[in-house]
Model the fold of this input.
Amino acid sequence: MSKRAATSTTLEGQAFLKALGGAPRRENALGEEMGEFEDAWEDEIESDEDVVDAEIAEEEDALPAIGESDEPPRAPDVFIPGIHVLGNDEVLEADDSVYIMRHPMNVNWPCLSFDVLRDNLGDERQRYPVTAYLVAGTQADVAENNELTVYKLSSLHRTQKDGDESDLDDDDDEDHLDEDPILEHRSIPHIGGVNRLRAQPLPPSSPFPPVSQPYHVATWAETGKVHIFDIRPLLESLDVPGYSFDRSRTQSPIFTIDSHGRAEGFAMDWAASGPSSLRLLTGDVHSKIYLTTSTPSGFNALSQPFLTHTSSVEDLQWSPSEPTVFASCSADKSVQIWDVRSKGRKSVAGINSAHESDVNVISWNRISTYLLLSGGDEGGIKVWDLRSVKKNGAVGPNPTPVATFSWHKAPITSVEWHPTEDSIFAASGADDQITMWDLAVEHDDDETGMGGTLEATQAVPPQLLFVHQGQRDIKEVHWHPQIPGTVISTALDGFNIFKTISV
Done:
């Protein structure tokens, strides 16, 4: 990000709460449409009369040609959070030479949680334009205005300007940078704001299920209910013109989990053992975790909770390698490891005082399956080797993290490992930053660092690959599993989808 003089609004935001019960409606120039992509180009059209007048004035005021200066153009100032401070008349302006693709998207209501839907368009997609599918839940002003929305983002073209394009193919869309992306959506009503949303996991290289089969999405509502919806007909209506579907299949949840009573919650994660065997974990603010399983006849919510935490359960993650094992984190500052087969519904191992304050989010590495990320309320990010975590009741000191990063200056709101690179992860914070990290990078004394100053070199960790800014109150960030290096984020002021030159 570079900085420039402010012309209208600033990009600074206030502290971000976990649930915005009465969030303001986004102003939308298109009236009642769900959302729109921002136009960063704003093409101007000149009339023939303006062109003639300009040519006459140019002939009358012609000056002798001035030789080109040998001095290179001055590089823009790089804004580094924690080192530089914006003035009252300055706002951040994105440097589009470091983004291969960057598209902001406005929505009517804030969406604090979303998930990326695996699609039929293939894996490892490198060519532009690209298409992405998302599902998101809103936080509207009143409970009745909330929605569950499926988005189709198509014609997402390259937006890189003044970058190194020597490796581009001739048929890439570099000549179509001013073409607008296309946003389509289908929405269904949702009673209560959505605290957390997760889509049913599909195995790698799996397309959408056939339209006759369900594609499940679970929502943690602020009402204390967990709802499971079938969104497969909505996806079909986005892809097949004129497709009509039975609204009774989508308008209402196919199952509602009442196990938590009236307790609100944020923690949720799916695990899949096969097309007909799904497991959903949900955790609430009263420290209880419940398991819901699927059967050929529907879903079954188990009545006995998992109990070890002493405060709100903030996040849950199934193990990518052990089908009965999962991890949790809590406002009690701990990370716990569980096995659903253990008697007594107690955790089998744990890390007490994993952070100095609440542990907000965790992410389990799907390649190096012994690594777990955690993000705390103090802004710290830690990487844990689960092979060193002691079993509950065992004597010995707490394990120490294999890496600790203290770059963020506000609570960490989301962390996620890269789906195919085991050393790379992304994180977001309430300090309006999204950061990308690579554990494999080591300090190089020959590098001058960001901005080319000693001050920047000393302040920026070598593992920090990229800092994305410009959104307010960032809540969640996800990698797209089929478009390498592409990141999607949601914040109070809408979505961003982008790919940087760093990953």
Notes: The two ends are 17 Å apart (CA to CA). The first helix runs from residue 48 to 60. Residues 2-23, 26-32, 448-452 have pLDDT under 50 and may be disordered.
